[in-house]
Each structure stands twice: as C-alpha cells, then as structure tokens.
Amino acid sequence: MATFLYRLGRFAFRRRHFVALFWVALLTLAGVAAASAPAAGSTAFSIPGTEAQKAFDLLEQRFPGMSADGATARVVFKAPAGEKTTDPGNKATVEKTVRELADGSEVASVADPFKAHAVSKDGTIAYASVKYDVSGMEVKDASRDALEQAAQDARDAGLTVEVGGDALQSTPETGATEVIGIAVAAVVLVITFGSLVAAGLPLLTAIIGVGIGVSAITALASTLDLGSTTSTLATMIGLAVGIDYALFIVSRYRAELAEGREREEAAGRAAGTAGSAVVFAGLTVVIALVGLSVVDIPMLTKMGVAAAGTVAVAVLIALTMIPALLGYAGRRIKPAGEQRGLRGGARKNASGKPNLGTRWASFVVRRPVAVLLLGVVGLGAAAVPAASLELGLPDDGSQPTSTTQRRAYDLLSEGFGPGFNGPLLVVVDATAADDPEGAVAAVTDGIKGLKDVVTVTPATYNTAGDTATITVIPGSKPSSVSTEDLVHGIRGAGAGVRADTGATVLVTGSTAMNVDVSQKLNDALLPYLALVVGLAFLLLIVVFRSVLVPLKAALGFLLSVTAALGAVVAVFQWGWLAGLMGVEETGPVMSMMPIFMIGVVFGLAMDYEVFLVTRMREAYVHGERPSQAVVTGFRHGARVVTAAAVIMMAVFSGFIGSSESMVKMIGFGLAIAVFFDAFLVRMAIVPAVLVLLGRRAWWLPRWLDRALPNVDVEGEGLRTPAGGRDAGTGADEGADEDPDADEDRELVRA
Hints:
Layout: H1 2-14, H2 16-36, H3 51-62, E1 72-78, H4 88-102, E2 107-111, E3 125-132, H5 141-156, E4 160-164, H6 177-193, H7 196-224, H8 228-258, H9 263-290, H10 298-329, E5 338-340, E6 346-348, H11 356-366, H12 368-383, E7 391-392, H13 404-416, E8 424-429, H14 436-448, E9 453-456, E10 460-461, E11 467-474, H15 481-501, E12 504-508, H16 510-544, H17 548-573, H18 578-581, E13 589-590, H19 593-621, H20 626-653, H21 661-693, H22 702-707, H23 741-749
Parallel strand pairs: 7-13
Antiparallel strand pairs: 1-3, 1-4, 2-3, 5-6, 8-11, 8-12, 9-11, 10-11
Helix pairs in contact: 1-2, 1-9, 1-10, 1-23, 2-7, 2-10, 4-5, 6-7, 6-20, 7-8, 7-10, 8-9, 8-10, 8-20, 9-10, 9-16, 9-19, 11-20, 12-17, 12-21, 14-15, 16-17, 16-19, 17-19, 17-21, 19-20, 19-21, 20-21
C-alpha cells in the first residue's frame, strides 16, 4: 500500500492542476445538485419490529383518514388570576382562536376545548388540539406564522397562551460556537506549523470535503428521507477527521523535507507513510459508522452511512488534494524545525533540547506502572456517574424553559397532571375476535384496574368496527419508571385478553416508542460491539502485525467511552456545569447516545492509535529497542497527535451551542471522549503498557504472520530502489516540470 500511495502522492503533486480542478468541479457539481434538489420532506422516525411501530402501521391501515403521521399542536390557554377559561369573555376569546386556527390551509381539524372536555377541573386551563395534514417538517412557514399569530391575538386579549407539539418543529441552529471551534482549529494549526500557508491547507481541504459531503446529503435528502441532524453530524465528524488527516500528511511532508528530500519525493513519501495510516484510520471510522446499521433503526443507519461517506471523502482528499496543494505552496512550506518568522525571515530551532513529547515519553519509560495506574484510576473515577445512566427520548419537557413548547408542557402538567404530556395509545385489533366490542370492553376494564392509571377514554372504532383505539393517561410523567411499568403492564394484560378473546392489544405513542427504542438499543449493543470491535481488531492486526497492540487499543477505548458517558450523565442528567454548557433542563440521556458514542468514539480512538503507534512500529521494525521505539514515536508524533486532538475537540465543542438538545449532547460527548482518549489513553496508558510488554507487544504467531497480507504501513518498501527514489532526487522545489509519462502509466497499473 505504501508504494501505491507514494506513487499517488507524486502523481498528485505533479498533476496538481488536474487534481485541484477535479475536486473543485466535484464540489461545484454537488453544490448545484443540492441547490436544485427538492426540499426535504418529512423525516419518518420508525423502529421496525417494535410493538409501538406495529401499532402505528396498523393505524395507518385501519384509520386511513387519521393522518397518524401528521403534525400536531396543542394551544394551551390559562385564564388570568382569579378567573376561569369558562368565563364568558375568556370563553369567547378561546372560541375565536379556534375559528382562526381552523382556517389554516394545512389544518385537518381543530378540537374546541369546551366540546372536547379539554378544560381542567378548576377551569383555569384549557387546550385546543390542532391536527395538520402534513408532518412537522413539512408544515409551511405560513402555517406556523398563522399558529403563532392566533396565539398572540389571544394573549393580547388577556390570556396566557403557549403552544406545544411538533408543528413548530424547525431546523436546529448551531450558533456562533461552531465558527469559534473552526477558529480555534486554525489557531492550533498556525502554532503547530508556524506558517499560515501550512495551516491553511488542512482547513481548506476539510472545508471542501465537508462541502462535498453535506451538499450530497442535501441533494439526496428528499429521495432518501434524510433529516437535518444527518447533515449536522456529517459536518461535525467530517470537519474533525478532515483537518486531522490533512494535518498528519502535511506534518510528515515537513519531516521528509527536514531529512533533505526534494519536494516531490517528500510529498510521495508523506502519502506513502502517513497516508497509509490515514487510510486505515479512516477505515476504522467508516466501519464504526456503517456498523450502526445493525441496530436496525433507519434514522441511525442513515446518520451513520452519511457521516461515513463524508469521512471517505476526507480520506481521498487528504491523499490527493493535499499533495497537489503542497505542489502549489512550493518553498512557502518549510521543513520541520524551520519556521517562517512573522516578518518573513526563516529561523531554525537548533537548540538541541528534546521536545515535550520526547521528555514525556522518557518519563513514562521510567515510571510505566505509576502512569498506568494513574490513568486507569482517573478514567474510572470519571466513569462512576455512568452507573446512574437513565435513557429517554427528548420531548417538550426537555426544551429550555424560555421556549413556548416547554411552557405549554408545564401548563398541561399543572392543569391535567404530569402524565397528560405522555398519553399511551392502546390499539385493539379485534378482527380475530368473535365479539369485537366485548374484547375491547375487556381491555378497557383491565387497564382501569392497573396501577398509575388516571384516565381511560372510551374506545373509538374504525369504520369496519374491527379495530379500536383507547387513550390512557398515566399518573406519572412520560420519562418516569412508573410510566414505563404501566406500558409493560398493559402489554401483559393484553396477552391474557388475546388468549381469552383472540383480540391483539398493542401499545404505542411517544412514551411507548421510547420504551421500545431503549429496549432495542440495549439488545443491539453487544452485537454491535462485537461487529465493530471485531472488524477493527482484525484490521489493526494487519496494520500493526501484533495481537496485543490491537487488544490494548480496544480495552483503552472501553475506558475512554465509559468515562465520556459518565461525563455526559454528570452534565446533562445531574446538572454539573449545566450553566456553563448551556443546558437549561436536565433529564434522561438520549436513548441513542450510548450506542452512537460507542460507534463514533471507537473510530476516532483508533485514529490516534494508528497515527501514534505506527510511528513506534516503524521505529521498532527499523531496529530500535521497544522502549526506545516508544520515545521515537512520541518525538515524531506527540506534537501532531496533540494538535489533532485539540482541533477535534474544538470542532466538536462548537456544536455545544446548537439549539437542539441531541446535537448539543453529542457535541459535548464526543469532545470529552476525544480528550479522555487522546490525552489519558493514547498519551499515557498506551505507552506505559507498551513499555511493560516490551518485545511481547509486537508478537504475532508465525502462521498468522504468513497468512496476513503485508500492507507496509511503515513504508519499508520505500527504502528500497523498487519502492521509491532515494533521498535527494525528485522535482525541483515545486516547479511546474513536465510529468514523467512512464511513472504515470505505472501508477495506473498499480
């Protein structure tokens, strides 16, 4: 592989006009496709195989006019102090608002609170249910404006009015912190390279890669039913890995220049060595993201595949466009150790003092046991809150108190009880029952006898009379354990009804869906871990030609991801530093968070493992002692890995400013996970373990050594005449010389 990538790097360096034109053309094409594509429609949230989803599908068949997937809104009215909504003046205001709402072009129905018995017992709070023909993401701005205007008119008349439901759903905003994250990345790159030109290359290529990826997602959003969160996460991960991959290749290029190689030769060798690490690091991220499909939640699968596609683009750009841009930069990029001064003069770092990475590695070599114990204990302490992890799906109750959705949620809880915001919809399929009405009555009576049930509405039948729906109002809030127990209780009672009457009882609604999602994710966790960790373990065996190094990498990942989950629980569930993170409301952690973090963090953790340990492996293969190889790896790689980690943390932290709680939580979780993994696991635990293992770290059974392909990540083939040119040969300082036609044909054959 190193030889092929070496030739590819030299080809891109010499054919830089062609390579740059290709990527710019691809970006333009993707941008035009995104601009001309139809707007994304509804983003269906389906959980195949769950009881809640089966009930939803049954409703679509048996109640075709119900618009089960249509947007809803609850307009909540509260009378002034000392008054009731049933007072003549207030009642007239509510009825006028209902008439205004009913005039909307996309409104399917509006329930008058005084006819639908939607008034609290004390008469102070009432609500009107609005049903739309289209989903929340498809509601037009005009309809949202009409909804908000009707609420404002009622406020002007003296009532307190708030609006809940998904009709006000809109695309989340990330805020200015995303830009700040990119700015921090730029500063880190300038400090690392000491040159604006060298720092600009990773940023430029990362932005182009993300532009292509996000434009493609936007172009396909309507066709593939991709939500807004998909492009946000693709941007988050694409920026982080795109900058990091380019950073490693540019850093290796400068190191090759420092060894006296000409620029074209240095570009080829950078692509052949650091580029090989980029390929395998990218493969681990892609495996982890695509592996999310085993969970069988379509939304999660689409998010993973879209982000994986963006990562693949980042790898290809790093391998081709970076060498091309290095050709354009010419002498403006200096060898490692030589930096351009602020006034244009060059200066050498000739102090001879070991760099910080060398000093730290030397310390670890002297005190491996102490460093290992400190790292493990520190991560273990951070992981303690993970034992209290509570999972749930976000609803209006998790919104900031400044939003009208949250205030509507609180008013409904005040007037009708905490369980009113999470009603359970029980669907009774009585097609196989001899007496459908008797079966439905038995279900209703059984539910009334269950604990924590406040209200059971009369059954509503479909036209054929063979299917009925029953709404159950729990006594506890939607995310409580009591409500979850009630869901299981209804399903358990339904099993008895089916045995007696033949009728099938299904429970759905947002609360039941949450219960099913959590169960499905828990069931998929072990198979997902086995698939992702297993495939990556095999891949790393090929890269490092070792059994213990990949095993150590996987165990280190488990430490860092558990500690990161502990930090997420501490901030978003317990409320530690919640104000600093902009978390206005604590609550259960999003159900998808653990498995999503495992997928993404595993891929990113393997990035640092590959980048740092391949340098150690390279030194060991070339004759250094194991402990000396650890120091050599840190001397060449620690500064760059540190910069890469800081950049990735900055990019992920930029999404903490998002208005959507899921994006905010993922941004924080990934940022803290990168911190734990890069600075505690890869920089402390990994070298300590390698020192303690000594030569055993690089042990591989002979039969396995013969069976594995030789991918030559260390670039050993480049040290022979067949693999590449000797140092000192190559192109002249980035001039536009004519390419060697024979070598171009050799590249094509490779």
